[in-house]
Q: What sequence folds into this?
């Protein structure tokens, strides 16, 4: 039986969670929300985490109702992500590990998403689409690693959506992507946008530039913000479904799992579901509690690693802004 | 670039931080020593712990570089102190999972 606490703070979400044997005991989160038209920057995001981290930690421990002595391992996000927020949260995780005299374990953020998705949905060996504000990857498991089959060659799909939300100045609360999704439901007219799949990889920066340059003209010529949100979503999600379908066919897999913040977009789930139906595959997705960055996914992935015997030397308990999904050997997976 | 005169000599600052006891001084040292200064910061940081005192030695060519590194150092130190205050005193006399 492993009880783990996880600290996540690689982007604008600060999350701390406690898990025991796959059972979520507490999952607390707070988000740094910027005014419309503005994104979040490393320094300000780190300050936000700095101000909130101890109150979130207290709340999490109260909710979980476990005493520190019952915790087996303290887990934190080692990377990838923004340096300053990562290191702020890591400082607290390390201090807590020392105070409680518990081992510390750095977890790859992407692995956290995948393992949490598998735990919640029960997917066994899925082809994974990991889509968020910082990452866009099509992943499949083979021989002890999560291998990247395709990814973005520039910005993440969530970054494209977030920045378009800034162009049309919609609210960042609860998240720009959520607000785009709601507007898109009322879109009627489709604007043809660049479609940018390059082999197994995708590209979003050109689409974003296209939108940035033309939005004011399009709005003047009779398109509504709703139409633009709709068109952007349809285009970028089609690209993601296309590459995921190819990976699915290549791996002869029968499961697709969507993880990451963009993964709770219901329209993306619908489109992916349709593709899966045509191929006789099963789609797995989770809701915002587990899709959007959270502490529990770090705790869970860390607990899996810990149980499989992974230990980290204290000297290695730093952070790294770049940390690829396929760098981690998945010793906890037996297949 | 160019408007800053590159002094030849390294600027140095030594800081001593007293702690109430050996164990907390050691915790602060352990937490802080893991984070290396960014490669392009131009700062060399040396940490050591002597009984209840945490000793930090910073050197760099430019005062600006030193300022950035020391601000970051104190931010983290402050966070460690607050964490100890919030979580309570260490449960053991030493850490057994290095």
A:
């Amino acid at each position: 039986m492993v009880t783990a606490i996880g600290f996540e703070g690689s982007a604008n979400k600060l999350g701390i969670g406690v898990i025991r044997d796959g059972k979520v005991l507490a999952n607390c989160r707070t988000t740094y929300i910027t005014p419309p038209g503005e994104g979040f920057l490393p320094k300000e995001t780190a300050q936000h985490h700095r101000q909130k981290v101890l109150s979130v930690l207290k709340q999490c421990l109260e909710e979980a109702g476990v005493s520190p002595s019952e915790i087996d391992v303290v887990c934190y996000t080692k990377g990838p992500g923004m340096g300053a927020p990562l290191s702020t949260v890591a400082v607290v995780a390390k201090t807590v590990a020392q105070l409680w005299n518990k081992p510390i374990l750095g977890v790859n953020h992407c692995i956290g998403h995948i393992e949490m998705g598998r735990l919640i949905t029960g997917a066994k060996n899925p082809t994974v689409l990991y889509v968020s504000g910082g990452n866009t990857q099509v992943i499949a498991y083979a021989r002890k690693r999560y291998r990247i089959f395709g990814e973005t060659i520039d910005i993440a799909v969530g970054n494209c959506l977030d920045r378009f939300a800034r162009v049309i100045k919609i609210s960042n609360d609860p998240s720009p992507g959520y607000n785009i999704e709601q507007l898109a439901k009322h879109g009627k007219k489709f604007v043809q946008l660049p479609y940018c799949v390059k082999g197994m990889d995708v590209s979003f920066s050109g689409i974003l530039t296209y939108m940035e340059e033309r939005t004011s003209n399009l709005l003047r010529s009779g398109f509504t913000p709703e139409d633009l949100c709709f068109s952007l979503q349809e285009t970028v999600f089609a690209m993601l479904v296309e590459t995921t379908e190819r990976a699915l066919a290549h791996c002869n897999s029968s499961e697709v799992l969507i993880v990451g913040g963009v993964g709770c977009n219901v329209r993306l789930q619908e489109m992916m579901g349709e593709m899966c139906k045509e191929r006789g595959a099963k789609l797995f997705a989770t809701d915002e509690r587990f899709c959007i960055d959270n502490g529990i996914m770090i705790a869970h992935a860390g607990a899996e690693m810990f149980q499989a015997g992974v230990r980290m030397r204290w000297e290695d308990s730093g952070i790294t802004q770049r940390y690829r999904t396929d760098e981690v050997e998945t010793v906890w997976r037996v297949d | 670039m160019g408007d800053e005169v590159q002094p030849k000599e390294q600027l140095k600052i030594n800081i001593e931080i007293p702690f109430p006891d050996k164990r907390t001084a050691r915790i602060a040292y352990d937490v802080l020593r893991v984070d290396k200064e960014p490669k392009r910061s131009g700062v060399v940081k040396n940490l050591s712990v002597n009984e209840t005192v945490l000793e930090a030695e910073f050197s760099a060519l430019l005062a600006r570089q030193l300022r950035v590194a020391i601000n970051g150092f104190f931010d983290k130190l402050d966070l460690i102190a607050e964490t100890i205050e919030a979580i309570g005193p260490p449960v053991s006399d030493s850490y057994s999972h290095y």
